[in-house]
Amino acid sequence: MKNRRNYYRILHVQPDAPAEVIRASYRTLMREMKKHPDLGGSSSEASLLNEAYAVLDNPAARALYDKVLSAVYTKGAVSKDKRPLTTVLCPFCGKTLAREPQAVKQAVGDDTCLQPRKPARLKNECQRALPRVKRADRISYCSALSPEQAQQGRMVDFSPKGLRFLSSERLARGSMLKIRGPFFDASAQVNNVRQKEIEGRTFFEVGVTFVEINFQQLSGTFLSTSA
Q: What is the pLDDT of residues 151-182, one digit of tens each?
């Protein structure tokens, strides 16, 4: 592999991303993010994007690349007790994570991985059994394309698997987000986006599925009421 840079990270997609997500991310980078030289981007950056896309959009070339990439990441990855480390790629930034990576407490917009030591497990799953709960909390989020620019949004509803929120910008389907809410931090993937008119203003209702989530409290419910 001549170029050791990660093609998945270059295109801001997960290693298991379907072909349509890869194509959508490539078009977003070249057109909307203006990486194409005709739109003001640099020829070297566009060349690298084209190189990554040419490999990942070709099933045979992608399969071969995945084998080489796996060998690079796992080479020599053996602990003192001779057990191989589990190779895990962060779904947000594409960095390689060690076995039992630590959860990081960083502000949204930081490029640090969001990956818990153990998957978030609920002490009593029936406590969070509501499939969808109406919420109106404010959240902040940033995308893999612009991790330094945190944006504000407002939740519509929430479930342990994902949420919907209102945004003033249209987000690309399949893109990865890092989200901070009043009781959780998460990385998530955009599933759908719908335009809505509210009081004469245009908003976008964004639906996401959580890839990783850390709850600030593992007990209690998402719903509180008062009489």
A: 999 999 998 889 999 999 998 898 899 999 88
The residue with tokens 């896309």 is 53
Which listed CATH number (3.40.50.720, 1.10.3720.10, 1.10.287.110, 2.40.50.140) goes with 7-75?
Answer: 1.10.287.110
Beta bridge partners of 214: 185
Q: Which two tokens stand for residue 34?
A: 């203006």
Task: Read off the pLDDT of each residue in 69-96 and give the average, rounded to a whole number.
Answer: 57
Which superfamily is assigned to 125-215 in CATH?
predicted glycosyltransferase like domains (2.40.10.220)
